Structure formats: C-alpha cells, structure tokens
Amino acid sequence: MTDTLFDAKTTALVSIDMQTSVAHHAAAPHSATEVVARIASMIEPARAAGALPVFVRTTFLPDESDNLGPNLDVKRPRYPHRIENWDQLVPEMDRRINEPVVNKKSFNAFYGSDLDLQLRRRGIKTIVLAGISTNFGVEGTGRNAYDHGYDVIFVRDAMAAGTAEAHEASLKYVFPYIGRVRSTDEIIAAFKAQA
C-alpha cells in the first residue's frame, strides 16, 4: 500500500443524508449540489479500492410517531406535508444492491440503527465521513464513531451546514480532536493509490 491515510479494504465511505430533501436545506459554505457532487465523486474510487460505501438517511413513519420529541429551546420542525420521496437517496449516490442503507432518526447515525453492526461485520476500522449537515448529522455521527473506536476522517469540502460559521466551528473545534480532516481530492487520491 502506497498511502497511509487508511487501508481501503477496512474503510467505509459514509454519507449523511444524501436524500431528496437535502436539496431544500440551507447549505454553506458549499451548496447542497456541490456536496452531493463531491460525495458522488468519491464513491466509484472507493468501490474500486475495495472500500464500502454506506448511505445514511433520515426517515420517519408518515405520522412521525418515531421522531424524537424532547423539550428543546429551538423546536425542530415536523413535516406533515413532506415533498415526495423526501427520504430517498438522490440518484447521484448510485447505490449498489449490496451497499448498506442505514436509517437514522437522530443526529447520530449510530443511535437506534444497525450502523455499527453493518461496519463490524465487514471488518471496517476507518470511516470517511461526509454529508449534510456538518454540525448535526456529520458531527453527531463522528463523535459516536470515535466513541465506538473507529478512526474517522472528515471530508471538509464534502459537507455543509446551515451557515458557514457553524460549518467552520465543527471543522476547527471538534473534528481535529476526534479524527482527521481532509479534502475530497485527498480522499480520492488515497483510494486511487490502492485500486
């Protein structure tokens, strides 16, 4: 292996919320379209190197009775009239039949899901993490990946938040303490070096 960033055969490329509704999210400093395109650009190199693409999506029952509902200072919106196919993966993800889709109901994709089981059954040690939103789904999942003992690599230009300030705060104050931060180009180069 010529690259030491990760061993592709024990690495999962985990995308957070690359689903239809993401096109309607505020996204900065990168647009949702840019984030989708950058994640999509990593998928085929990951496959070619033997890494596992994993697609995490947020989904609820139609009445959202399985949505979390604690008391909060900022009320999370409920969506009684969601757009059609809101929780389906965007076509750019080009998911293959043997690639896991993990359903999450919280900011942390490990909570109440089979994500850890899917990864451990396949011998995954490193998670390359990207998606929307940087400071919620990506950060929540990254913190728990760290707690589960995974090496985590955050793809800084393949994620976005509601504001550039929120995005940068996670990149500067959280991610370096629970993993490594790299660019899409660096991740693609590391996969291609092992293909």
UniProtKB/TrEMBL annotation:
It comes from Bosea robiniae. Keywords: Hydrolase. SUPFAM superfamilies: Isochorismatase-like hydrolases. It comes from the Bacteria. CDD domains: cysteine_hydrolases. The keyword Hydrolase applies. This is Nicotinamidase-related amidase. Residues 11-186 form the Isochorismatase-like domain. InterPro entries: Isochorismatase-like_dom, Isochorismatase-like_hydrls, Isochorismatase-like_sf. Gene3D superfamilies: Isochorismatase-like (3.40.50.850).
